[in-house]
UniProtKB/TrEMBL annotation, chains A, B, C, D:
This is Dihydrodipicolinate synthase family protein. The keyword Lyase applies. Belongs to the DapA family. GO terms for cellular component: cytosol. Gene3D superfamilies: Aldolase class I. It comes from the Bacteria.
């Protein structure tokens, strides 16, 4: 089953679980996959920006992908295949599609500047990996320093039939969604799925702007599913009420560098990860940070019982 | 009265008010100054990053500074003097100090890369403007692309007696505050004031890390004053309760580009500005954005009556 | 007399001469202006990137411009007016045009990324300064980090009647000239003057690609005039012979940072500047650098007697 | 035989030869290796920045390394192992050392900014690949946007016994060599080999500043060997005479993007490569560029018969 432009819901960014000794923690992969299915997510992204992919040896990466796919109970699994060259990107893409992946995500190298450079890059990438492999544009200027206007995204979509989704994490980004949906309405761009990243920091408004859902790894993906569902049911106030209760923690987890450590720490406290360990190099989780996260969880638990985790 | 390293509280970043025709709106300056005094702020920053300084002619900038000073009822007024050359920076600094400013704020040019380049820049700047003029380091990597480690800040503080304050807006930044306060405790750096920017997005935790207060322009500076005061009184939960109610709007206003338009719009709705106009070039405030801000204000008003503004 | 799209020859980038005490050296301005006229240059650019403009106070800058204009014997004088805001740019442009300047040069701020951002910037700048003021695009990605494709330049030229010249210093840049001249031939862009910078490092081939001349400050502008003239006379080999003799020094002077110190040093040794002084902050000219430049001059003098300067 | 800090001479950057159909051209590898030995080079760098490494599949890269090593007749072979993560870097390093490589070259990721980030990166990299593997720092800010001060290089050398060489291609860079050699003289840094890149554009002066030789891929490495030898014999004028004859072509080949196409074209014209083909994506070699290179070769042949290649 391949990813399509009709994708909706929450495609969760999955972490790569490690044990304290740095080895891959397979039982936690299984536990997370089960949890994602039960929580109502509609897909799983593996080896994304926050999947610590660069810290994995080639064989390890493949084994993580294979394990998630085998446990996903039919949910589409998307794999990040960004690489410094097209040869490696093509080899990795072929491998993961053979393993049963539903599509791949491609981030732009941070040397791209002009509109044409960006458009050319995605055209070459799609040809290199094969135009039968669905791909996702990752639009994350804060991290990649590459700025794609709506017009550039339209050009990429128009030139590449294999482009099915935008991982939207520009900032600010609300008008960008409105503009892209306007392109669809005026007939100048075919429909693609728009799924929002940035730890969900603006998901409450992105949904009303026309997003199809979230594609991020916030430590409560079950809450993201609820927000998307409530929006679908027209319950705007209820969606905001739930979202606002989580916002202090969403914001805290969205901090670059330390954010992934926070995310893994909460997933451990929720019983989903055996360990909060990251592979080196990694920003440490200080005692004060842990105390602050515990405090945020305690406050959140007053509004959302899922946060009432045992100490 | 000059700015000192003992500065605390909320030094509010003041906008430059314009009428719809683009001319400077002096009555709104007066109204804002009165409001800042009554709200309990402890200082005012004029011509900062969000004061639209580059859109002002030389004489206009001076007149805005002079007006704010004349209406500040003794509050210290800090002026942003960042400029492409030291000659212009020195001329502007002399002028505003002669007008009665309490100090100046200096942002690093975005071409600085190495530690030595940053340290040299501040040494040269302080000598150029005169070492009797107190200055503030603006540490805002997201906008300026200049990354200052705590060690670099310590070197700047050690070399420059005129450095009295850090406008802290690194992101993530909590550990940075802890590290700098650690330098003070271990005796390797003299005390400076640390005031937090970034629209206050992390003010709730920055206070417990050792910050002295806020130096930002969020559209409810009176709330920032309350949070700083509550922290001073040891009321952590109360501070968070108030802060969390504002967080959805804080986050919304913190968006680059559109944020200033949102801020001015709310200040107008609060009756403080006659017009929400920005000078060109400026990001427009779309109807959908206005609706979203109105919605956020209505939700906020349930927790904080100051947000219950007439439509 | 205003600058036009028919500009040809060598528009020399003039330094700002200082005495050893840092004051402006007016007699050297006069001497340089005389020299530029006699050398056959067709224009003078003042307050360019290497004119140390940011180190001049506002009044000093105006006095330097006025002096060069008064001594230029009718040569068009172009003034660099790049500024962080349109208000300052407009004020400076008006002032220098009133003094008799022929046009202005505008560099893009190094925050511009997308094609639209660049095009919008020049449109806003031209409107801000007045569309009756001829302007030059400075296309220097190495220093400004802004990459303009030929298509972007075409858009700027098409939208702005006041755009008359491109200061071409992209690197590599030969194909860019060919592409732009191709746009003119196929009727998709009106003609503009293309004058080459980069210290003339590729002038030998830029001329055959279709450039109209040079717009740079190499310490032998008389040689640049010869190369342009020889090309105009169809003497390609002779142009290269002369150029190649200078290339070791051209390359040496083109080094960022230290290059301006080298240039001033040679202009002093040629008797055109009273002092090689730069205003602070500036890269120092070490003894070893001086020895290397002397060595290069001695070697050059074997081919070009103009380099046989007294020790 | 492992690379040491005593390395001198010319370690040539070898291209990866392709046939017109894009497959690896093994006979050309053999021919190049023979040529490098006969030309007097003292080492070979494979899979460097201009070895098109990112376009090679994993197995292809290994086969190119193995072939060069098998044909190098005892010359040390250095391999570029820069990678987005330490896991891949360690795997590649182990593989090439097992194949017989003499050491590895590591470029910094272009996200590094502060001094500490750069120092930490090299410490982590050396530990990841194993401290028994000699490594080379590649200091190339123009391409990598990472600026290393001499003090930072000293810290890397001091912390990492495995650091044996600096590939020096900062620009400007002459003072940097002088400063590093000064560190050695004053005893604050142990000796390392400094080999110069940047296509040799400043090799004539870098030698007298204290460089040990060149580490670059200019299409006449035999000329680079001569220049290094002449300097060693104290024949400064003769070294410059030969160098200056090549400078027009050196400069032309040093252009980013198109430079590698020029290099391969000349190597083909010299009979060393069967084809000038690059793998896609690559900058094309236009007819006009080819004509210009032919013209430069014809001019060069008047001074250096090695450039008198058959048409």
């Amino acid at each position: 089953m391949k990813l399509t432009a009709e994708q909706k819901g929450v495609v969760v960014i999955a972490p790569t679980p490690f044990l304290d000794d740095g080895s891959i923690d397979v039982p936690s992969i299984d536990r997370l996959a089960d949890f994602y299915v039960q929580a109502g997510t509609t897909g799983i992204t593996v080896l994304g920006q926050l999947g610590e992919a660069p810290k994995l040896a080639f064989d390890e990466a493949a084994s993580v992908v294979a394990r998630y796919i085998s446990k996903a109970q039919g949910l589409p699994v998307v794999v990040g295949v960004s690489a410094p060259g097209f040869a490696a990107m093509a080899a990795l893409s072929k491998q993961v599609m053979d393993l049963g992946a539903a599509g791949v995500m491609i981030a732009p190298p941070n040397t791209l500047r002009t509109d044409d450079q960006i458009v050319n890059y995605y055209r070459q990438a799609s040809r290199a990996i094969g135009e039968d492999i669905p791909f996702i544009i990752q639009d994350y200027p804060l991290t990649f320093s590459v700025q794609m206007t709506p017009g550039v995204i339209r050009r990429i979509v128009s030139e590449n039939p294999a482009c099915v989704m935008l991982k939207h994490e520009d900032w600010p980004g609300l008008e960008k969604i409105s503009t892209l949906r306007g392109f669809e309405r005026d007939g100048s761009m075919r429909h693609i799925s728009i799924m929002c990243g940035n730890n969900g920091l603006f998901l409450d408004f992105e949904m009303s702007r026309g997003a199809d859902g979230a594609n991020t790894g916030y430590c409560f993906p079950d809450m993201l599913c609820d927000v998307v569902r409530l929006y679908g049911e027209g319950k705007r106030d209820a969606a905001h009420d739930l979202f606002d209760a989580h916002l202090p923690l969403i914001r805290y987890e969205q901090q670059p560098g330390v954010g992934l450590a926070v995310r893994k720490y909460v997933l451990m406290r929720r019983g989903l990860l055996s360990s909060a360990a990251l592979r080196q190099p990694a920003a440490p989780l200080t005692a004060q940070t842990r105390e602050e996260v515990d405090y945020l969880l305690a406050r959140l638990a007053k509004h959302d019982r899922r946060a009432a985790v045992a100490p």
